[in-house]
């Protein structure tokens, strides 16, 4: 059955209430938030009048809702100039967002909920109320990978906890909704930006306007090209996006059609060599000579090609310059009509054909080059350059190479993203009512979603010099002078990890979720609740590697040393995937406006995450394709208690939270391990802002007390802090805006955290400071300057191997945020 048939058979819907419902529940066009041009602040609402649509059935002031939600408007997007969606989300309280891997594939966690295998397991990314992908942590295809913030965005709303449990499926932690402009206000922009101290050139444009009284439209997109933030030495960024929508208004509703085309390449930055000294509790992370942690990369123009065997036995030739190559072709429709007598009917639909590929260089081991050569070629082995201008030249003294004497046992993370199609339909019927002093609403709905996950993993192993720019591949020769590598190739597959990762899987995930919601209001009291009955299924198959055998991969008629043991996907041993689970989620909240502009709220919720591809190779799926209930679904129980204040130029939100959950997951690198833990967390998040004349301040902070309450795999972890979870995360953005001139800082930071669940080796806390300034040289032309990591701080977000101790020689690997980078821009508004 094809995707269209699936959606016609099971039309889907969301139905929530004014406090539990979603932005997907449509409102009359006249009530919809107005579009804003990217550089115009006068079309956005001040913080104390902030209107949100995510998590509510109708646009409402945040003060009147019993949810924790933050919003970033188009003006903030331009000022902050985030390098990607994850970079932007560092400014949201409650979230821990790590964008150190580049523009995509970020690690995002919320309120202490775990993300053991990376990605955003308990978080969902949406565009205009519809999921980009049904799962936020698909291996090598996290949801933010298919998202590019640009001038099309009107605002971003982030709902944390609470009604996220019933707002959608698989996102009990948070829903991140990127809301598009629709052309309600005529205007547009053309922006040109250029990296000052790095190579990136980008062109953005958008325009929208009403057409007569009944039509509006908006179009926009971007194109960029460059080498990226780090010293790749080749064009690593290339591509762009186009989005458009058109709306036909009627007296009682509207119809909207939309389209999205994304074709982009961006580099995926991996951990790099790091010297660790000091103690495990107070370590010092430093760069090695010729490999700066802040600007160096394992990517190089002398390491561009890789050949592997795909699941079908055919050869796959990859160019490492493609990095993350992402393609999306999508289209959707939205219909909303008031039927009279308080009834509203709405339907939203989107289908996106997602595909692409991933290729990068991951240092599975960093060690003295002489040591690596001895492991590969045994005693008496020698080393020579295999690529670059010195190809073929012997390295007389490996201990002095590049001033650090190191080598990298590098894996190419080669993955073909065959098909990640997502199709979602949401249908709802809502009724507003008034009964004397009471008013409220009830809603019924149905949500239907289809998610394809089809991937082909084909990793290989190489020897690379430890050099942060233009690194060459190296060949090893045995004591007899015979080559044991092949143009830098150590082995097909990854024997250092036991050849774990020649994989293929093709699985269809279907979600059906009927909804019911109800709420009522009397005076300043709002009470609401909603339930969601999720029916989730998985059907397909997966296959792992065969026993290595001889294959002439390069087809030169000879079997060279790496070709003597080549692992391939063993389709003859493919295993079925066939499981279906049904479960209930709910959310109940109360909001009371104590006095004008001061409100308190409380909420109790039970959400869930249906597990997907990370169970396939971790032992979670039985031989017949079935799965245990507790493995298939991870429940999240949450409680929120908060207070909100609006007072003239001041706004403040303070929320206490508590969460309990379990996680089943597989980690493939840097060490293979099965995660089956129970977690508990509690804490407080604060968000506030202040305006006084030309001075503006926005800020927030989150305290999180998170613990592994029980580990079913390793009981020694009981009571430990989840790795990479800091106790305090904070952000602040002070600025001065005279109307013509804007200058400000954006400060984000974190306290220390542990590199692993063993809680031995720490990663120091850090503060990252970004700066922005702009001037209107004419009423329509604005010049700007943005600086990321202004003070060039070394901010460590991840430790590779080892992650539990400081090695005696201090040699390890770590991933950090990029160092200082400055972008200049010019924007024409019309």
Mind explaining what this structure looks like?
It is a single chain. The protein has a 23-stranded antiparallel beta sheet that branches. A 5-stranded mixed beta sheet has the order 3-8-9-6-7. A hairpin with a 5-residue loop joins strand 35 (650-667) and strand 36 (673-692). Helix content is 4%, strand content 53%. The protein is globular, with a radius of gyration of 27 Å. The chain has a single domain (3-268, 323-360, 413-459, 494-543, 574-829), classed as TonB-dependent receptor, beta-barrel domain (Maltoporin, Chain A, Beta Barrel), CATH 2.40.170.20. By secondary structure, it is mainly beta. The model is unreliable at 1-49 (pLDDT under 50).
CATH topology: the name is Maltoporin, Chain A
Largest sheet: 23 strands, antiparallel
SS-based class: mainly beta
Mean pLDDT: 91
| Count of individual beta strands | 46
Number of domains: 1
CATH architecture: Beta Barrel
Distance between the termini: 48 Å
- What global shape is seen? globular
Helix-strand layout with pairing:
Elements: H1 3-9, E1 51-52, E2 60-61, E3 68-73, H2 74-80, H3 85-89, E4 95-98, E5 107-110, E6 123-127, E7 130-131, E8 153-160, H4 164-167, E9 174-180, E10 187-195, E11 199-211, E12 215-228, E13 237-250, E14 253-266, E15 272-278, E16 283-286, E17 305-309, E18 315-319, E19 324-340, E20 343-358, E21 361-368, H5 369-377, E22 382-385, E23 406-412, E24 415-419, E25 422-435, E26 438-458, E27 460-465, E28 474-477, E29 489-492, E30 502-522, E31 525-543, E32 575-595, E33 598-610, H6 629-632, E34 633-647, E35 650-667, E36 673-692, E37 695-711, E38 728-737, E39 741-750, E40 753-754, E41 762-763, E42 766-776, E43 781-788, E44 796-799, E45 811-816, E46 821-829
């Amino acid at each position: 059955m094809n995707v269209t048939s699936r959606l016609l058979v099971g039309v889907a819907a969301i139905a929530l209430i004014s406090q539990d419902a979603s932005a997907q529940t449509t409102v009359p066009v006249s009530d919809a938030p107005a579009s804003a041009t990217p550089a115009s602040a006068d079309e956005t609402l001040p913080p104390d009048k902030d209107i949100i649509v995510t998590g509510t059935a109708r646009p409402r002031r945040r003060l009147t809702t019993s949810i924790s939600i933050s919003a970033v408007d188009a003006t903030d997007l331009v000022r902050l100039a985030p390098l990607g969606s994850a970079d932007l989300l560092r400014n949201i309280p409650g979230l821990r967002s790590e964008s150190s891997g580049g523009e995509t594939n970020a690690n995002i966690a919320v309120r202490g909920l775990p993300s053991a295998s990376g990605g955003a397991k308990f978080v969902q990314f949406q565009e205009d109320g519809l999921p980009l992908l049904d799962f936020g942590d698909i291996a090598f295809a996290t949801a933010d990978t298919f998202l590019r913030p640009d001038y099309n965005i009107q605002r971003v709303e982030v709902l944390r906890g609470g009604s996220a449990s019933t707002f959608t499926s698989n996102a009990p932690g948070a829903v991140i909704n990127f809301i598009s402009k629709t052309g309600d206000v005529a205007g547009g922009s053309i922006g040109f930006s250029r990296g000052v101290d790095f190579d990136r050139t980008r062109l953005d444009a958008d325009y929208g306007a009403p057409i007569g009284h009944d039509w509006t439209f908006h179009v926009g997109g971007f194109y960029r090209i460059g080498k990226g933030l780090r010293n790749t030495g080749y064009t690593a960024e290339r591509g762009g996006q186009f989005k458009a929508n058109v709306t036909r208004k009627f007296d009682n509703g509207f119809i909207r059609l939309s389209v999205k085309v994304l074709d982009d390449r961006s580099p995926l930055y991996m951990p790099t060599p790091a010297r660790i000294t000091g103690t495990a509790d107070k370590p010092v992370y430093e760069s090695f000579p010729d490999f700066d942690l802040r600007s160096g990369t394992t990517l190089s123009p002398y390491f561009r090609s890789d050949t592997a065997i795909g699941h079908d036995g055919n050869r796959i030739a990859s160019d490492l310059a493609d990095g993350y190559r992402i393609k999306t072709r999508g289209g959707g429709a939205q219909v909303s009509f008031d039927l009279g007598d308080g009834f509203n009917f709405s339907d939203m639909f989107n289908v996106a054909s997602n595909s692409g590929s991933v290729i990068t260089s991951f240092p599975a081991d960093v060690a003295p080059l002489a040591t690596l050569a001895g492991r590969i070629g045994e005693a008496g082995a020698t080393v020579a350059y295999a690529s670059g201008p010195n190809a073929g030249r012997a390295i007389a003294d490996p201990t002095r190479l590049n001033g650090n004497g190191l080598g990298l046992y590098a894996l190419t993370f080669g993955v073909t993203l065959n098909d990640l199609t997502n199709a979602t339909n949401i249908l709802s019927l809502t009724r507003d009512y008034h009964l004397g002093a009471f008013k409220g609403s009830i809603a019924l709905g149905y949500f239907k979603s289809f998610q394809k996950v089809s991937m082909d993993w084909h990793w290989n192993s190489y020897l690379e010099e430890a050099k942060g720019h233009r690194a060459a591949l190296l060949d090893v020769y045995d004591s007899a002078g015979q080559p044991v590598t092949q143009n830098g190739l150590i082995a097909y597959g990854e024997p250092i990890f036991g050849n774990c990762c020649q994989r293929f899987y093709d699985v269809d995930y279907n979600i059906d979720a009927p909804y019911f919601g109800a709420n009522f209001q009397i005076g300043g009291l709002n009470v609401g609740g909603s339930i969601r009955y999720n029916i989730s299924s998985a059907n397909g198959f997966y296959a792992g590697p065969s026993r290595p055998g001889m294959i002439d991969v390069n087809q030169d008629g000879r079997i060279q040393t790496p070709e003597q043991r080549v692992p391939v996907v063993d389709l003859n041993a493919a295993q079925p995937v066939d499981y279906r689970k049904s479960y209930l989620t709910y959310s109940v909240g109360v909001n009371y406006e104590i006095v004008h502009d001061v409100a308190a709220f409380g909420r109790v919720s039970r959400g869930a995450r249906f597990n997907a591809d990370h169970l396939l190779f971790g032992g979670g799926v039985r031989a017949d394709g079935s799965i245990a209930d507790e493995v298939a679904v991870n429940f999240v129980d949450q409680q929120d208690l908060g207070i909100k204040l609006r007072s003239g130029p001041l706004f403040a939100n303070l929320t206490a939270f508590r969460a309990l959950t379990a996680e089943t997951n597989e980690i493939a690198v840097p060490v293979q391990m099965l995660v089956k833990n129970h977690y508990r967390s509690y804490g407080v998040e604060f968000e506030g802002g202040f305006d006084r004349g030309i001075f503006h301040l926005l800020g927030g902070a989150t305290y999180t007390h998170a613990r592994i309450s029980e580990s079913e795999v390793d009981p020694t972890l009981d009571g430990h802090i989840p790795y990479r979870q800091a106790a305090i995360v904070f952000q602040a953005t002070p600025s001065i805006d005279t109307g013509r001139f804007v200058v400000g800082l954006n400060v984000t930071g974190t306290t220390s955290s542990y590199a692993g669940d063993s809680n031995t080796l720490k990663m120091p806390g850090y503060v990252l400071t970004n700066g922005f300034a702009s001037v209107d040289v004419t009423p329509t032309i604005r010049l700007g300057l943005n600086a990321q990591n202004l003070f060039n701080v070394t901010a460590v977000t991840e430790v590779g191997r080892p992650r539990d101790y400081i090695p005696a020689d201090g040699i390890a690997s770590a991933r950090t945020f990029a160092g200082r980078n400055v972008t200049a821009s010019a924007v024409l508004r019309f």
